[in-house]
Amino acid sequence: MIRFQILCVSALALTGSAQALAQEPVSNRYTIEKSANGFVRLDTRTGEMSICTETDGQLVCKMAADERRAFEDTLSDLSARIEALENRLDRMEPQDESTGMPDEAELDRAIGAMQKMMRHFFDMAEELRRDFDSLPETPPEPVPDRT
After folding, report:
1. Taking the CA of residue 133 as centre, how many other CA atoms within 13 Å lie in the half-sphere pointing to its CB?
2. What confidence tens digit (pLDDT) does each residue in 3-47 have?
């Protein structure tokens, strides 16, 4: 089960990265405006704003505080949901996956159920045999149809 989960996560990651690579970059996606403390970068596609400063000749951008808080809230919500799902999966998985064979108690219950079923079957067969033995040797005469 854990292998399946790892495989699914890997497949989703590869699919997401393949889609990102397949998309062509948008040339006018961001606009940058000078502000009193540096620069403000606007993502024209999503509307997200970032505050940028120039450090060692490079422009370093950070998400705005509101967006960062919303991102962290979403991240913590998703983390909690993942943890709940993992706990649920742990409860569903069998504890002993080493042999895959039923234990002695399960085998005894299964054999007991089969014995009970076979006894009932043979009892019904015996009852039918007795019913057929009690029938007369010659079949009764057919009744004429009076229509």
Report:
1. 6
2. 555 545 555 565 655 455 555 565 788 888 888 878 888 888 877
